[in-house]
Each structure stands twice: as structure tokens, then as C-alpha cells.
Amino acid sequence: xxxxxxxxxxxxxxxxxxIRDPKAAHGKPKRxxxxxxxxxxxxxxxxxxxxxxxxxxxxxxxSPEAMVKLLSxxxxxxxxxxxxxxxxxxxxxxxxxxxxxxxxxxxxxxxxQAGIVAMMRGxxxxxxxELVATRVHLEIDLxxxxxxxxxxxxxxxx
Length: 158
Fold this sequence. Notes:
alpha+beta; Arc Repressor Mutant, subunit A; disordered C terminus
């Protein structure tokens, strides 16, 4: 995986450059990380030998409205609990958050699609949610590719 280490300021400057001149993005890394340690963690997780039940980054185009809903205070609390407690199953996460399992499963599915969470196989039929991104950079297609208008795509930054 090709990536770049940089500050949020450098990322913002690069984004502004690409908006002015889209050709500037050709051949440049599409993933940015805040530190070498974060990059190592993200690349190591991507190379995990354990099969992933639901893969992050597939179909991860998210509308601006969906992204706002996805990052609601309730879901940010869920992500915080996921990071701190590292529950072994979706049901365990539901118990920790006080939400029902079906609601947590639906939220996790959307977080997987956004590339923020991965679902790892656990014991038997158990599926363990794992936070794979602690930061998310939004890429906004201002040209409205393929006539869809403005799209927001999250990029997990490990």
C-alpha cells in the first residue's frame, strides 16, 4: 500500500492544490497518516492473515447526509467504547452501549462500508468488531463524478 506521512495542514494544502489542478494527484498516494506508527498499524492490520467477515473500503462512497448521521454523538460513543473496551462480539458491544444488537449491527455495517470498522471472525459464529481507523479524512468530489453531484468518501487513516 502506498501512503504519505503528513500533518493535517499538509493534507489540507495538498487537497487545495488538487482542487486547483486535478492532475497534481496523479501518481501520488491516496492514503495519508499522521505518523509512521499509525501507518505501520494500518498496514499491519490490512495484512492480517485472519479472514475479514466484512471488508472495509468496499462500496465506501457515503453521501454527506449519511456521513453526518453516521458520525452522530451516539455512534461516536459506540466507536469510543469499541476502541477502549475492544469487545469480543457484536452482542458484547451492544451490552456495553445499552443499544439492542440489531441496531448495533446496522450501525457497524455502515461503519464497515465507510472503512472505519472491520468485522473479524471470532470463535464459532461470533464476529468481532474492530476499529481500524482513528481518524477519517473526507474526500469531496466537487465535480460530481458521473452526474451524482457532490459525494463524500471517507478514507480511514488508521
